[in-house]
Design brief:
The complex is a heterodimer of chains A (113) and B (112). Chain A is 0% helix and 47% strand. With 113 residues, chain A is mostly beta strands. In chain A, the strands form two sheets. In chain A, strands 2, 4, 5, 8, 9 and 10 form a six-stranded mixed β-sheet that branches. In chain A, strands 1-3-7-6 form a four-stranded antiparallel β-sheet, with no helix packed on it. Chain B is mainly β. Chain B has no helices and eleven strands. The chains are: A mainly beta (113), B mainly beta (112). The interface between A and B is medium-sized, with 23 and 22 residues.
């Protein structure tokens, strides 16, 4: 079956522009996660969605970051007024249920010039 | 203090040897433990999960968990050059059990 998909695979933008990153989880998975991996750094939790519950946004680094999940499936991570320190690989993962094994998508490499 | 610690490596082993990767964690209430493999430029790939003390074997991989010592390890038997990658240890957070805390990873090099 299809795994987690993400688009775009690469995004180059100018400082100050807004970007949208998309994640399509594995079909049937109720939980969806966003992580960020900066060069040479570990994975950093950003946000978690589970079914219709309120998301856990505790990992979002600033109010320039927001995410939504429509219809319990596809998720979009939006970064407003991008900064150079936002450059990283943004990874989406999904799991069948909360606390389950998390499977990652291929990631979106964001470069802010 | 880092919550999940791994030796960054590189750990270099000859082809056919056993590679031993180690991880310690600080949250005594953690219940779920995972090993991911990450090739350069790729995303993490789940290879093992373990929830109970003891050993769990899957093919050439064995995960070992000791909650009393807050220690989890991954053994790779008959190491192959294709096993060369960074191995990430992940532990669930006690306050938000769905949230994984990742170590910085151990880079493994398997010499032909």
């Amino acid at each position: 079956g299809a795994g987690v998909s993400q688009s775009p695979s690469n995004k180059v933008t100018e400082k100050g522009k807004d970007v949208e990153l998309r994640c399509d989880p594995i079909s049937g998975h109720t939980a969806l996660y966003w992580y960020r991996q900066s060069l040479g750094q570990g994975l950093e939790f950003l946000i978690y969605f589970q079914g219709n519950s309120a998301p856990d946004k505790s990992g979002l680094p600033s109010d320039r970051f927001s995410a939504e999940r429509t219809g319990g499936s596809v998720s979009t991570l939006t970064i407003q007024r991008t900064q150079q320190e936002d450059s990283a690989v943004y990874l989406c993962a999904s799991s069948l249920e909360a606390e389950g094994e998390q499977f990652f998508g291929p990631g979106t490499r964001l470069t802010v010039l | 203090q880092k919550e999940v610690e791994q030796n960054s490596g590189p750990l270099s082993v000859p082809e056919g040897a056993i590679a031993s990767l180690n991880c310690t964690y600080s949250d005594r209430g953690s219940q779920s433990f995972f090993w991911y493999r990450q090739y350069s430029g790729k995303s993490p790939e789940l290879i093992m999960s373990i929830y109970s003390n003891g050993d769990k074997e899957d093919g050439r991989f064995t995960a070992q968990l000791n909650k009393a010592s807050q220690y989890v390890s991954l053994l790779i038997r008959d190491s192959q050059p294709s096993d060369s990658a960074t191995y990430l240890c992940a532990v669930n957070s006690m306050d938000s059990s769905y949230k994984l805390i990742f170590g910085s990873g151990t880079r493994l090099l398997v010499r032909p």
